[in-house]
Amino acid sequence: MNPYTELYGSENREPYSLSGVLNSNVAELTESSEGPSITPISHAGDNSHDAFQLKQKCIGDLPAAKISELMKLNSTEQLIMQQASTRSLLNVANKILDESIERKNGDISKRVAYLLKEVVRDIERRISGQSEVFKKQNNLHKAREEKYQSKIRALEILAMGASEENEVAMNQLRQLKAAKTKIEEKRKLEELDVVKLMEEKALSDVQISNLKHELELLKGTYEKHSLQMEVQAKETKVELEKKVMEFECLLADSRKKVEELEAFSESKYLRWKKKELGYKSFIDFQSRSLQELRVASESIKQEILKTQKVQSKEFNHFGLKLKGLVDAAQNYHTVLEENRKLYNEVQDLKGNIRVYCRIRPFLPGQSEKHTAIEYIGESGELVVANSSKQGKDSHRLFKFNKVFGPAATQEEVFVDTQPLIRSVLDGFNVCIFAYGQTGSGKTYTMVYIICSVLTVHVRGTDLKTNAVLRGSLHLVDLAGSERVDRSEATGDRLREAQHINKSLSALGDVIFALAQKSSHVPYRNSKLTQVLQSSLGGQAKTLMFVQLNPDVESSSETISTLKFAERVSGVELGAARSNKEGRGVRELMEQVAFLKDTVVKKDEEIGRLRTLKPNLSGEKRGISSPSYGSSSPRRHSIGTPRETGTSSGGKSLGRVEKAASDVDNSSEYSDRHSEAGSQQSLDDFRHHKEFLRQSRLAVVDRGQILTGDVESNTAVQDGGRNLTEDFELLGFGDADSEERLSDISDGVLSMGTETDGSINSIVEFTLFPETAKQPVESIEK
Ligand SMILES: Nc1ncnc2c1ncn2[C@@H]1O[C@H](COP(=O)(O)OP(=O)(O)OP(=O)(O)O)[C@@H](O)[C@H]1O
């Protein structure tokens, strides 16, 4: 649609129609220019232009409709118009319009006129474009004409030429035809392509519509989303506003604080300023002092150098003195060693009981316990903490011949004990017994000997002097010396503990008597002391191992044990003497001993019969008999029901009411138990005998342990005789005392065995049934 129609409607048709007229004229001109008359027009242009100029004035006075009418009607004018150039024609139209605009003064709106002018200009542009095309076409036609002319000339030449050339022409024609068919095919293909493209276009349309639909959907969701976002934005806005308010409050606070801080920092700054001034003055003062000090240090250096020289001289002097002191110290140590030796010799001469103290280590699982042992000296000093006491008494110092700490090995203990054991071969009686509370390591130290007392008798002949040597070694593993109140034993175990305690208190009595050098030593109060009589009083060498439990909970037991050991260490047995006798003397000694024992046994028999009398008259009460009245350190009551205690190695451990270590108390015990302790039940006695039958024999010869059957007594004749002698020596040789002998013969098992050279040894294994009671049969008899 023409845009001018839209703009001006029917009122403004006049310029449009004028333009249409002009256009049609131009179109006519254009059509005519394609024809062969173009050339005359262009050639005749100049003449017609002059003619047109002539008519120009009168045409200009006419209205537009008239002009077109004139152009149609007047053939001469028409020709002029046809022959006039388009530019001239348009100039005329312009002029007419301009004049009409001026003349009509508002009949034709200025706007329309202006647009008309624009249209005319556009036509002009087109016409100039068309003229360009015409020129080009003209040139093309000229070129074609020339080409055809040359072809015509060529064809004329060819026509005049031979028929072969005609054929060539025909061929060319055919080729042209073929080319034409190809072109047609190509066109068909292109048509097909167009169809395809149309189809694709249809598809694309469908896709576009789908996409549009999707776009609609997306638009919907987007709108929803944007709505939500808007709601959220509103909420967030509210929150933010709140926050802004809060921040504003904070800001106000912060401002206040800042102001305060500023004020504070201002005051601080002032203070620092003052301080700075102070420091500056102080630094000045210091630097002055430093200068002075430098000067002083220089002088001191000089003095030091001087002093160093003096000191080096003095050092040399001291070195010489020190060397002298070291020599003196070495001498002091040698003297100290000699003193120790001399002290030991004095001890030997006096016949003091040697006391070795041994502290067992904490057992596995006791690692967190505290120790009561505070100090172990190399010369036998021992400091023990006494938790029950305060102040000065909270520590107690003891001194013994030797103290073995928890780390001491069996080998170390044996090395120290070896010389004593060796002296048995020289005819000395040696007794080694271990004392201490239950579980303190007595058996461990006595090298796990399964029995309580092991006696080794060694007999030999000195080949040079023909003298007979008799030595005996008693190894005694005593029962635990724990208090009954601590053991909390009841029933059978309490009785057992009391019996065990008897033997320990009897031992205490003996040691107390020996320490007091009293005329009567109560050896016969227990089998233990009877067995040990030769070792405790017969100028024997006696060694006591005091075993200690390091646990602080056992400190009271430890203290009482050590007190007892202290007493024991004070006992002087007299210088040890070797049993080296001529044959005659020995026989006489044996006779004396035999007679002594017989007297003693007769006394005992009388005493027993005395006690038996009230029983026979119907009074059922305990009797006191030396043969049964003794208690011993170990009880082996096989077959008797008993509680399992803390014993190790199958031993029955006695937890006793009072430690025999406490000599003050032990005498009291001795009195009390000498009567009560002798009561033995028939059952216990039987059990004891049964056990003894099953017991095995251990043989020890120079530290070697041999075992043998109890029944297979393979002693040589001398050995057999020795056994009898030993029984006599121990005071059990009375043949009249049937019960006691049977008890001892079962209890003391011996075996002789050859040792090196002429020395024979007898080993005895002794068990003491503390709970064995007097058999009813014997009482009745
Ligand atoms: N020196 C030691 N080194 C390592 N363990 C030891 C030592 N002394 C003792 N023991 C251990 O401590 C425990 C108690 O020792 P032992 O049985 O010899 O005590 P005891 O005094 O003979 O006891 P009881 O009075 O009950 O017969 C045992 O397990 C033993 O192995």
From TrEMBL:
Keywords from the UniProt entry: ATP-binding, Coiled coil, Microtubule, Motor protein, Nucleotide-binding
UniProt key word Transferase: no
GO cellular component, one term: microtubule
Region (Disordered): 611-680
Entry-linked SUPFAM superfamilies: P-loop containing nucleoside triphosphate hydrolases (SSF52540)
Coiled coil: 159-257
PROSITE patterns associated with the record: KINESIN_MOTOR_1 (PS00411), KINESIN_MOTOR_2 (PS50067)
Keyword match Transport: no
Domain (Kinesin motor) ranges: 352-446, 452-571
Alphabetized SMART domains for the sequence: KISc
Bias-annotated ranges (Low complexity): 623-632
Record InterPro entries: Kinesin-like_fam, Kinesin_motor_CS, Kinesin_motor_dom, Kinesin_motor_dom_sf, P-loop_NTPase, Vik1/Cik1_MT-bd
GO biological process: microtubule-based movement
Single GO molecular function: microtubule binding
Residues bound to ATP: G436, Q437, T438, G439, S440, G441, K442, T443
Pfam families recorded: Kinesin, Microtub_bd
Family listed: Belongs to the TRAFAC class myosin-kinesin ATPase superfamily. Kinesin family.
Protein known as: Kinesin-like protein
Organism: Escallonia rubra
